[in-house]
Amino acid sequence: MLIVNDEQRLRAGIGSLSKRCQYCCKAEASYPLILSDDARLAVYHAACAVELATEIMVDLYTFLSPPAPYHQLFVLTPPGAAPAEVPAHPQAHEGAGE
After folding, report:
1. DSSP character at residue 38
2. CB atoms inside a 10 Å sphere around CB 74
3. What pLDDT does residue 9 have?
4. pLDDT level of residue 98 (50, 70, 90 thresholds)
5. 91 in helix, strand or coil?
6. pLDDT for 32-82, tens place per residue?
7. Counting CB atoms within 10 angstroms of each CB, which of 1, 8, 49, 77 has the fewest?
8. For the CA atoms of 57, 59, 61, 64, what is the dihedral angle to 10 degrees?
9. How far apart are CA 54 and CA 50, in angstroms?
10. CA dist., res. 96 & res. 92, Å (int)
11. What pLDDT was estimated at residue 75?
12. What kind and span of H or E run contains 45?
């Protein structure tokens, strides 16, 4: 949730701006702030929330599309879509004719 003023902050259950950002550990001294929707109700500076989201997207991309020589572990397909043919690993054919 985006928090841009004292009224929104108080409605979100955040008593003061003296709490510390969960990402950078600096005081939340100014707006805008981002309130996460997890059980902890973590509050972030807007710039910190963007950095955290970017890190998560990079980690997910690296996990789902690993660089060589690592192989892809998961393939995400929408429901109802036919699974794509996954090419065999090159090492699986090495030494097959020996």
Report:
1. S
2. 7
3. 87
4. very low
5. helix
6. 999 888 777 788 999 999 999 999 999 888 888 888 887 777 777 788 876
7. 77
8. -130
9. 6
10. 8
11. 73
12. strand 43-45
Cβ neighbors of 52 (< 8 A, separation 6 or more) are 23, 44
Residue 96 has pLDDT above 90, yes or no: no
> Token pair for residue 37?
């929707």
Residues 6+ apart with CB under 8 A from 43: 3, 14, 19, 21, 22, 28, 33, 34, 35, 36
- Cis (ω within 30 of 0) for the bond into 69? yes
Using alpha carbons, list the distances in angstroms from residue 62 to 16, 50, 67, 68, 90.
38, 18, 7, 11, 21
Under DSSP, is residue 3 helix (H, G, I), strand (E, B) or coil? strand
80, amino acid identity: G
